[in-house]
Design a protein that fits this description.
- With about 350 residues, the protein is an alpha/beta fold.
- The chain contains 10 helices and 15 strands.
- Strands 3-2-1-4-5-6-11 form a 7-stranded parallel sheet, sandwiched between helices. Strands 8-15-14-13 form a 4-stranded mixed sheet. It has a two-stranded parallel sheet with strand order 7-10.
- Strand 1, helix 1 and strand 2 form a beta-alpha-beta unit.
- Helix 4 runs parallel beside helix 5 and helix 6 runs parallel beside helix 8.
- The termini are far apart.
- The mean pLDDT is about 95.
Length: about 350
Amino acid sequence: MKKKALITGVNGQDGSYLAELLLEKGYEVYGLMRRKSKVSYGNVEHLKNDIEFIYGDMTDLISLINAMKISQADEVYNLAAQSFVGTSWEQPLATAEIDALGVTNMLEAIRTVKPEAKFYQASTSEMYGLVQEMPQTEDTPFYPRSPYGVAKLYGHWITKNYRESYQIFGCSGILFNHESERRGKEFVTRKITDAVARIKLGVQDRLELGNMDAKRDWGHAKDYVKAMWLMLQQDEADDYVVATGETHKVREFVELAFKHVGIDIEWRGEGVEEEGIDKATGKVVVAVNPKFFRPAEVDVLLGSPKKAEKKLNWEREISFEELVKRMVKADLKRVEKEVAFNTYMEEAAATKE
């Protein structure tokens, strides 16, 4: 009998990589999708014939119960979230409804339909916020600094509560920043690599960022979804930090991204006056814009993956340098196609005139 898995947030970055992994392992994969006027498969467009999609919403318990009845999932991966930290200040209530109460809805659906199903909750390093120790482990006290981090902390604790109260096999993966070629452009890493590609190809002048001194522990999403799967293959449910054990400044990410397109960056100025200069041309290609500063900043995140490495036998394969290289390469291809299409359309319009 094939194992059955239900993935919420299936068309996001993590959902797409996880779906690929589970399909490779012979799973029958179900994906929860919100009903829209126009169907959008997002990052799973290439898998739309391999996944059985179920319409549902994390804020609607009845639809989640229905999803569990249809899928009869052995494993449920809850990846659905309002996952952009910046937006959580603009939409704190929506963030709470999806990222906090939505987790409770999913757990209730499991408890009602199939309590023996195994559950994975996507927790986040943003729960550490104002970090209390370095590096952060499973035992480090939490101190979230955004509505997103607070909502995720509720989801983390309610998973633990259902595990202890109802014996639900519930695991939380405290994942540190994980990026990829499929990351949305609203996230700083994709914003950087997309801008680098556009600047290289002459369709954008400069990249504007907020706090370039912020430090993050960046890995590749493809490596991290393996840890999710491994958690649900254990005999006992537990929580795990998934990280690289390395931290890099946003400034370092910028430098490396430009380096991959042959542009060396030289920095001048400090604070809001800081600028990144193309050494070869003297042109300003990076600038600080205060509008991108957060109301409460998380200065540094650095995770210890020792428990996951020891108990899950998990290891990452993609380095920080390779991650940046892959993202820049993918964005160069995207922008080249975009430029070629726009040029074709302009030439076609000129011919008609």
